[in-house]
Amino acid sequence: MVIGCNGLIGSSLVRKLLNEGHDVVGYSRRNPDVEHSRFHSYTGELSELNLMISIMLRHHVETVIHNAALSHPKMAEDQPFRMFQVNLSGVLNSIEAARITGVKRYLFASAAGVYGNNISDPVVEDMPLKSECVYDSAKIAAEEVVKNYGLECGIFRIGFVYGPGRIHECPIAMLLREVRENGCVEWNAGLDQYLDYVFIDDVTDGFVKAVEAEKLKYRIYNMGGGRLTPFRDVVDIVRKLYSHAQVKIGRGGLGYDNIGRMDNSRAREDFGYEPKITLEEGIRRYDEWLTGF
């Protein structure tokens, strides 16, 4: 059961699971654009505990993947109640439904932002967590709920996801759109922003491998691109794609926490997670998707 099946990761994950032969139950506020004989879609709110319980029982759900959230640090940043209501209370309801119905495994999509402003190379799972905003605080609190609830669980601290399907704020998409539309870009800052970029297909592949793993040895896993990447590297790739464009980006950050290279060793050794899409290939594929969007 994929809770939050209509978002960037959720909708892609549903398709990947179906392609791998799984029966999938989707739960979201809106149905995704997926039609398949093995896909059963339900609409509902994260507050509807009884509805989630009835759906899990009806379909004999064995694994729950909770991916529903306000999915960006800058979304609802001035509405802390809403952020905690969705990103914490929603997790509490879905994991309680999983406990009541005897679900075997609960997987939770957390975020690299729980490490705070951390430029380490690498960033490993046992580093202290530092909340820099309401979004990070809600993720940290939800992690505490999941890892101490008594179910077999996997908490995935995911890097900065980009690629086809991402429509919310993304500096790669913003740069590509501006280059295509105007032929030039001039930003005051951004070159020194560090993020661990991970392509959407690599993330969904990691989740599927975790679903299929015989056992999860750890409760917490990094799931990033595994590359220490300043935004200047993104700019260089875009310049190669659009050699005619004039791109001028100043020093400094883009307003995000700086995140160093996430160490994916646990996930690689435990269930075979290995990001395959290079930043160059990922940006090219993202650009092709954005052109037709």
What does this structure look like?
The chain is an alpha/beta fold. Helices cover 40% and strands 16% of the residues. It is built from 9 helices and 11 strands. A 7-stranded parallel beta sheet has the order 3-2-1-4-5-6-10, with helices on both faces. Strands 7-9 form a two-stranded parallel ribbon. The relative contact order is 0.14. The mean pLDDT is 95.
Topology, pairings included?
Blueprint (H helix, E strand, L loop, with lengths): L1 E2 L4 H12 L4 E5 L10 E5 L5 H11 L3 E4 L13 H22 L3 E7 L22 H14 L4 E7 L1 E3 L8 H12 L1 E4 L9 E3 H13 L7 E4 L7 H11 L4 E4 L15 H7 L7 H14 L1
Parallel strand pairs: 1-2, 1-4, 2-3, 4-5, 5-6, 6-10, 7-9, 8-11
Helix pairs in contact: 1-6, 2-3, 3-4, 5-9, 7-9
Descriptive terms for the model:
293 residues, alpha/beta, seven-stranded parallel sheet, two-stranded parallel sheet, globular
The major pleated sheet works out as:
7 strands, parallel
The Rg value, from CA coordinates, equals 19 Å
- What fraction, in percent, of the residue positions are helical? 25-40%
Portion in beta strands: 15-25%
Q: What's the end-to-end separation, in Å?
A: 28 Å
H/E series: EHEEHEHEHEEHEEHEHEHH
User: Regions with pLDDT < 50 over 5+ consecutive residues?
Assistant: none
The computed structural class is: alpha/beta
Q: Taking all residues together, what is the mean pLDDT? A: 95
